[in-house]
Write a structure and sequence with these properties.
Structural class: alpha/beta
Order of helices and strands: EHEHEHEHEHEHHHHH
Oligomer: single chain
Number of helices: 10
Helix content: 40-55%
Strand content: 5-15%
Strand order of the largest sheet: 2-1-3-4-5-6
Length: 203
């Protein structure tokens, strides 16, 4: 009798998620037991179905794939594979720190992804070779811990006033830190700075 690998799949793009679920269900040893469109729902789905494995898109509204993976890893010890278009080295480092067991670009063929899922299910780790190679030559983060902390809040769309309240700093001080981060990253708004820091995997 074939042992089924039960999978929860999360991606905010319905068409991609549905297509991937259909393709994975064609594999005789893989069963998609649940689908979610965002990170919070994905974590709830894992809690409810207790799958063998979870496959999360990196970029989802609210709780992103790595944050969701960290929760799933900590609470349920369910291995997570991240699929992404944004395969930046810093994102890989952040994913591995969160306990992610696989890191795969969205250009990966479904049949190859199925092989990777089997490997991860058997206890191995998989990182796309090109991403791993680029991580070795990645540029160090030029931002301070305080700048990164404020950019994390900015990434949620918070105003300067709201950020100041959350971190217990004066609004002018927050603006100065954000301005410094913007200058270092060569961008003109705090939202661009936050986006760049997120894409690089620094926040």
């Amino acid at each position: 009798m074939i042992e089924l690998i039960r999978i929860v799949l999360a991606d905010d793009e319905d068409l991609i998620r549905g297509a991937l679920a259909t393709l994975l269900d064609l594999e005789e040893d893989i069963e998609v037991v649940g689908q979610a469109g965002d990170g919070a729902k994905a974590v709830a789905l894992v809690r409810g179905t207790r799958p063998d494995l979870a496959v999360f898109d990196l970029e989802m509204p609210g709780t992103d794939g790595i944050e969701a993976a960290s929760l799933v890893h900590t609470e349920f010890a369910v291995p997570v594979v991240i699929v992404t278009r944004h395969a930046r080295p810093g994102v890989l480092k952040r994913a591995l720190a969160a306990g992610v067991r696989g890191f795969v670009p969205k250009t990966t063929a479904a049949s190859r992804l199925a092989e990777i899922l089997r490997d991860v299910h058997s206890g191995r780790r998989y990182v796309d070779p090109e991403i791993a190679a680029s991580a070795l030559t990645a540029t160090a983060c030029p931002l301070t811990e305080r700048e990164l902390e404020l950019l994390r809040h900015a990434h949620t769309g918070a105003t300067v006033g709201a950020i100041a309240d959350r971190v217990h700093l004066a609004p002018g001080t927050v603006r100065n830190y954000l301005s410094s981060a913007m200058t270092k990253l060569g961008v003109s708004t705090r939202y661009e700075a936050a986006r760049r820091a997120w894409e690089e995997g620094w926040i």
